[in-house]
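Box 3.1 A note on notation
Throughout this textbook, protein chains are presented in two layers. The first layer is the amino acid sequence; the second is a token string describing backbone geometry. Keep the layers aligned when reading.
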Amino acid sequence: MNSEKPPIPVFIPLFIGIIAISFSSIFVKWSSSPVSVQAMYRLVITVLIMLPFAGKYLPAAKSLKRSEVLLLILSGAMLALHFLLWMGSLTWTSVASSTIILALQPVFVMIGAYFWFKEKTSLAAIGGMAIAFLGVFLLIGSSGLSGSAGHLTGDVMSLLGTAAVAAHMLLGQLLLRRLPSFLYSWLVFVVAAVILAVYNVGMHIPLAGYSAREWGIFALLAVVPTVFGHLLFNWLMKYASASTVSMSVLGEPVGASLLAFLLLNESMSTLQAGGGALVLLGLVLFLKVGKPKKGAVEVQPEGLG
């Protein structure tokens, strides 16, 4: 736990952040725009919100090496791919299934860190990971048993989107050894927005002509889950332990599922609920015993949800 005293009790911004990120999938479901357009404008608006604070990081940006620029581009590409896959999954599957699978992000990061950075973890953490993946297989299997190919497609897209954001965060772990967190996030958002813009143009997806309601949803996606969600969690890192903040990953599927039930009339089958419960149980065990080693760089999930 950090020794600096917060201006308000930690549980207040933590609760606000969990509710904020839980709304991400609801906004995506409410929009009738292509998910690639939603993702692009979410990032563009976020970049503009962050722009007034980016000036002091200009010297650090100018000193970037070519290898770091290439890593930034690759990280931004993985973030763009994450948005395309995860946000696209919500067209096919339920909010509950998609966000529960997305919550596996810390597990994917651990797997990548093992192969990339040779970071070891405990058998207990591996056990938690196994339980979580068993729950995912149960979720995906229940989609297959339901006879809905769409739900199965959406679940697989969410799983692939989770792998993409884990790759983005592992690249961030490399870059954050030298770059300030704010600069890294801002530059990666810019890169991802440009890649999504190129994708939209290449696929002949209109960039304009959307209703005021759609523009309002684009703005909500930028402000609510990003500013009042992920950036708020980054601020909380000054006052709370990383493990406390990381547990918020479990709050999103719970909050999003409740909001989907209330606002979208979505429900879960018994088999899906059982799979979701296994995922959350496995993640609780994993996050409790699979903490990063002292001195390791921790990357906040600015691209999630």
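The mean pLDDT is 82. Residues 149-175 form the longest helix (27 residues).
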